[in-house]
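We modelled the chain as a single entity of 273 amino acids. Its sequence is:
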Amino acid sequence: MVRPKLSVIISTYNQPEWLQKVLWGYEHQTETDFEVVIADDGSSTETKDLIDYFINRSKMKLLHVWHEDNGFQKTKILNKAIEASNTDYLLFSDGDCIPRKDFVETHLKFQEQGYFLSGGYFKLPMAISEIITEEDIANQNCFDIHWLMEYGLSPSFKNNKLTAAGFKEKFLNWITPTEATWNGHNASGWKADIVKVNGFDERMQYGGEDRELGERLFNLGIKAKQLRYSAICVHLDHERGYVKPEMLEKNAEIRKATKDQKAVYTPFGIIKS
């Protein structure tokens, strides 16, 4: 069997309405030779029913990786999804980020040995997040700045993420003060590199857990390409009731140790030492 060019790993937890819109986005990609692996951090049957619906009716290759709900365990379910993936190249995003139609194509276009790719996201307000339909995604309305402003989007320099093309897109990627980091909502890299650093550190919960993986990749000698204005997804609004100060403090300590020790491997990842 010929393997797909890329695996999209999407993390989710009890947001079936948002996940549905995201999966519609992947149904309307210009590049169709990819699989989707949903890393489900313990969602209820409502999410499973939605995923089963897509498995049965969609042309996409779709896998559902799930474990029981035991609090915020995104790093654990992502490692399981990495193991379940069937390709050499992995693209990570979230179940609240709708990809523009060229999202997968762009990540494949810029992939290169020795690099990972760092994209950004465009945050939508709740009022717009709620009204986006399957037709709006098929027609790419939710990436059209004029359509968005009709529904209340405010003018902002960040709107350039949706309008930049050609020289402007390359120039903005070059001058942006935002560092190219591993972002959970929009980053891709070679599976071999991710496995070499042993995936995500499962001690970590919310707050920099994605960045820490990227920091180990940097320590390994992998470089990053900035695609902030090229690989585009829109982020649907939601609350973050799972964020706790102790999570952020613990994660900050782990990240500091990774930097200070120039660590390239975590013993708390895919393989447990």
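As a brief sanity check on the tokenised model: The longest strand covers residues 6-12. The first helix runs from residue 16 to 27.
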